[in-house]
Design brief:
By secondary structure, this protein is an alpha/beta fold. It has a single domain, classed as 3-Layer(aba) Sandwich (Rossmann fold), CATH 3.40.50.150. Helices cover 37% and strands 19% of the residues. It contains 9 helices and 7 strands. The protein has a 7-stranded mixed sheet with strand order 3-2-1-4-5-7-6. α4 runs parallel beside α5.
C-alpha cells in the first residue's frame, strides 16, 4: 500500500472509530422516561417520542406487509422499528456498529416478546450472503455513516430479486438545514454534531441509488409553518426517503 492509500485508510479507520464511539455514548442521551432502561415503560416512552418526531412512519411504511418474510434493518439503534416489523410477523435481523445500541435492541425485543437476530456489523460490509432478505430498511442512518454508497450497494446485494429497500437521508435543501446554521438557534441540533454527519441534495441521493432500477422519492418533515401550498413546501422537507425495488 502506498503512502497516500495508507493515509486514507488510517483516516477511514479513525472516522469509523469516532462514529462508533459517538453512538455508544449518545444513542440514549435524551431523557424521555422516568422508567429505567430495559423496562417496558422506558421503551414505550422511546417509541412514543420516535412517532411524535416521525409521525409519517405509520402512514408511509406498511409494517404489516412483511409478515413471514425476511427484513434487515441497517443501523437498528434501540430496535424501535425493528420491533414494529417483528410484531407484525416479519422475521427480523438488525445490525448496528454500536454495542450499546444492540444491547438496548436486545432488551427491547425481550420486553416485546419478539424474536430477532442482532449483530454488530458495518452496513457497508454486511455478513450475509447475496439475496438473503426481502426488505432492507435503513432510516436515519445513511447521513451518519462514512460510506453511504457502500451501505446502499450492500443493501442491494443482500436483497432477493424483486426485493425492496426503504432508505432515508437528511435533505440539504431543507428548512431545518437552514435553522441548524443559525448561531444560538432556539432548537436543538439533534445529532448534527456526530462525526461524519452529512446531508444530501436530491440529485446526490439519486446518484447513490443508481443500483436500483426502480425508485420513488418522498419528502417528509415539512416546515411547520404551512403558509404556502404543500406541493411548494415538500422539496424543503427535512427527511428524504427512497422506496426502491431490486430488479428481477
Amino acid at each position: 500500500m502506498d503512502r497516500a492509500n495508507a493515509t486514507a485508510a488510517n483516516g477511514d479507520a479513525a472516522l469509523d472509530h469516532a462514529i462508533r464511539a459517538y453512538w455508544n455514548e449518545r444513542v440514549n442521551d435524551t431523557k424521555l422516561s422516568e422508567h429505567p432502561p430495559g423496562t417496558a415503560g422506558f421503551y414505550a416512552a422511546l417509541d412514543a417520542y420516535r412517532l411524535r418526531k416521525n409521525d409519517y412512519l405509520p402512514r408511509l411504511i406498511d409494517f404489516g406487509a412483511w409478515a413471514g418474510r425476511d427484513v434487515l434493518e441497517i443501523g437498528c439503534g434501540p430496535g424501535l422499528d425493528l420491533v414494529r416489523f417483528a410484531r407484525n410477523g416479519a422475521r427480523v435481523t438488525g445490525v448496528d456498529i454500536a454495542p450499546v445500541a444492540l444491547e438496548l435492541a436486545r432488551d427491547y425485543c425481550r420486553v416485546a416478546g419478539v424474536p430477532a437476530t442482532l449483530l454488530e456489523a458495518d452496513g457497508a460490509h454486511l455478513p450475509f450472503p447475496d439475496a438473503s432478505f426481502d426488505l432492507v430498511y435503513c432510516h436515519g442512518v445513511l447521513s451518519f455513516v462514512r460510506d453511504p454508497a457502500g451501505v446502499i450497494a450492500e443493501a442491494h446485494r443482500v436483497l432477493r430479486p424483486g426485493g425492496q429497500a426503504i432508505l432515508m437521508v437528511y435533505n440539504r435543501r431543507s428548512w431545518m438545514q437552514w435553522l441548524l446554521r443559525i448561531p444560538g438557534r432556539p432548537i436543538g441540533q439533534g445529532h448534527a454534531d456526530a462525526p461524519g454527519f452529512q446531508t444530501f441534495a436530491r440529485q446526490e441521493f439519486e446518484r447513490l441509488l443508481a443500483p436500483f432500477p426502480e425508485r420513488r422519492l418522498v419528502f417528509e418533515r415539512v416546515a411547520p409553518l404551512r403558509l404556502l401550498p404543500d406541493r411548494w413546501l415538500r422539496p424543503s422537507g427535512w427527511h428524504l426517503l427512497a422506496f426502491c425495488r431490486k430488479g428481477q
